[in-house]
Structure formats: structure tokens, C-alpha cells
Amino acid sequence: MRVTHKTINNNLLHNLNSSLKRLNRYNEQLASGRRISLPSDNPVEAENIMRLKTSLSQNDQYLKNVEDGISWLDATDSALDQLTGILHRVRELAIAGSNESLEESAREALATEIKELFDSVIQVANTTHGGKYLFAGQKTAGASQPFTNAWGSEPPFVRQDGITGEIVIEIGAGSQVAINVVDEDTDGLFTKALETIAKTYDDIMNGNIDSLSNETLKYYDETMDLILTARSETGAKQNRLEVTKERLKDLDFNFNRLLSSVQAVDVAETIMHLKAEENIYQLALAVGARIIRPTLVDFLG
Questions:
Q1: pLDDT score of 176
Q2: HEC string of 257-283?
Q3: What is the pLDDT of residue 37?
Q4: Which 8-state DSSP code applies to residue 172?
Q5: Beta bridge partners of 177
Q6: Is residue 176 in some structural domain?
Q7: Domain carrying residue 253
Q8: Distance CA 285, CA 275 (A)
């Protein structure tokens, strides 16, 4: 086959252009810190990077859900702790009110405090966290509070309808957990607590000594059982989410490490390749200038 000056010129230009592309790629890698800028650079590695980024994004969302869930449960436990303290005080007042020798003024003082404790329970029942009601089921937002004080009416409170839904968060692939305490329609802990306090108030005001010593304390015990169950379940979920949080943080670290190993450029190695390619390019340029000086000068011009 006859080799013409045009063939030599074209081959030289092709080789010089290929070398320039490699030089540009090495410079881009050093500037960005990444081995792959475009999928076409390495389709297989690019697919692995996309898969790792997707997994990392999902893991970050799970981690955010878990942290939000822990925060919600912490606020819930704090509210239930307040409720526990209020009920303990109600029991003390019920026992004090069961004293037959108690004067009327003393009974009225006990009743006044119990009324204030009733108000406090309403406040706890309407506790918000991040602008959302803790004990309103899925009705966490809006102007309507879960419980409204209706002292003097029967019953002495209004419980909003439809506040029994669970708030469920996703903490992993196919793994979910409900983070809220649901106040059931007739057997909810706040419903029971408010009924217990209202009964204690009536018994003290009416001097129902037997009821204060027996039935009212039974109401109290039933209410405390509900609260203790709720706190136990809340604590178990807190522990589960704390363990899950640590696992997700480990996964996050591993995903980032894998992504870095696949994506990050080896600076020393890339500089070595860059220097070698620069030498190759300069040598090819010099050789080409001697072989086809006029054509090369035209090309450079």
C-alpha cells in the first residue's frame, strides 16, 4: 500500500489529538478529584457509582426518619413523664380527701388543686412537637386540638374524633415502626386520666369517702397501667431506633468509603500518567515536525 504525505499527516494529527484528549482527561481528574466525569468515561464504573449514590441517598433518608422518630419519641416520653407526675399527685389528693375529719374548706382546697391538675392534663394531651400534636393520631396539624377543656359539662372534656391513626416511619427496606401513642376511643390513657381526675374531684366535693378509698383508686391504677404500658412501648421503640441509627451511620460511612474508592482519583498515579502523556505528546510533536514540517506548521498555525 502506498503511504502518502497526507496519510502520514492524518495519522499524526489523529495521534496528537488522542494524546491531547488523554491529557485533558488527566487534568480534569486532578481538578475535580474524580476519575469519572461522564458515563462514557467508564460505563461499568459509572453504573456502580450511580447504584452507590442511590443506596446512599436511601440510607440518608432512613437515617433522617430514624432521627426524627427518636426526637418524637423523646418528646412523647417527656409528656408521659409529666402525666405520670400529675396522676401521682391526684392519688395523693384522693387519699387526703378520704379523711372523714377533713373540714369543708380543706376539701375545697383539694378540689381546686385537682381542677388545676385536670387543666394540666389537657395541656399535656395537646402537647406539640415541631408544630405537630403528639397525641392526635395522624391529625397532627391543624387548628383543632386533640382535647378541649369542657369543665362543667358531662363529660368535662371534648375528645376530637379520628385521632387514633398511627404515624409510621420507614427505617429500612421493608422495615417500619409506629412512633406515636394512640389514645383509643374509649380506653385511651388521656381519656382515662381525665375521667379519673374528674371522678376524684366529684368524690372530694361530695364527700364520697368510700369511693375515694376504693373505686377512685381503682380508676387511678387502671390509668397508671395504661401510662406505664405506653412508656414501656415508647422506651422499647427508642432503643430500637437508637440501634438502627448506629447501624445506618455505619452503612453511611461504608457507602461513602466505597463511593470514594470507586470515584476518587489517585492523585499520585494520575500525576504520573499526566507527566508521561505530556512527554509522549511533546515527543510526537517534535518527531512530526521533522517528518512533515510544512504540514505540521500549517496545522499549528
A1: 96
A2: HHHHHHHECCHHHHHHHHHHHHHHHHH
A3: 64
A4: E
A5: 169
A6: yes
A7: 68-257
A8: 15
